Amino acid sequence: MKDWTKTFGEDLWLKPDDVGEEEAAFIAKALHLRPGQAVLDAPCGAGRIAVHLAHRGCKMTGIDLRPSFTRRAAARFRHESQSGHFTPMDLRAMDFREEFHAAYSWLGSFGYFSADDNLAVLKRYVAALRRGGRLLVDQPNREAMLRHFVPMHSAGGRTIKNHWNAREERMESDWIVERAGKKQHNRMSIRLYTAAQMRRLFGRSGLTVE
After folding, report:
1. How far is CA 140 from CA 34, 109, 119, 195, 198, in A?
2. Residue 176 CA to its chain's centroid (Å)
């Protein structure tokens, strides 16, 4: 599934633009955000969370692999008279240095790469933080997913087939969508960590876990 992030259907990535306020409130609380603080949203999608943090007074920077997403985020900020910076960028290419009070990776957006690359990405988040900065990473609950594993389900015109690769500890999925009478396959793979593995990963990157 090499470079699957570039072929996965754009319409399958994002939640609707009109949601995100509740998520933003949780993120603001977890990161102890205050007006005027610089915050990194990576990946930012179309800015559905970032715009609500901007309304709270945060100075938002967002990056995402898809240029169409960063364009949508920038357009939404302009429409709502908010200031923000959005750049199309691979997480593995982040090169910020002590610029942010806080950063977050939301909606299961961590774990897409190899084990080495995942650690490297985490270190890039850490490098982007100012001294004492905070990072929030949201990932699917591995134990719950495996306990209630569903190999296939269909909803909203989509069929999702899941396979647990125990050797590599990855959930591999194929999202099958019918468009114009043809079935399109959108394959993805994510490394799922246990809580203990995440703590060790955070420790290796220089973070202190709360």
Report:
1. 27, 9, 17, 11, 12
2. 22
Predicted TM-score (pTM) of the model is 0.93
Q: What is the DSSP letter of 65?
A: S
Q: Which of 191, 192, 140, 187 is nearest to 159 (CA)?
A: 187
DSSP H/E element including 27: helix 21-30
Where does the chain show beta strands of DSSP type E? 38-41, 59-64, 84-88, 100-105, 129-137, 152-155, 158-165, 170-179, 182-191
CA atoms of 164 and 161, how far apart (whole Å) = 10
User: What is the phi/psi pair of residue 36, to 5°?
Assistant: 95, -10
Which pLDDT tens digit goes with each residue over 54-104?
999 999 999 999 999 999 999 999 999 999 999 999 999 999 999 999 999
Question: If you search the block for the tokens 């060790």, which residue do you land on?
Answer: 200
Please measure the distance between the N-terminal and C-terminal CA atoms of the chain and give it in whole angstroms: 34
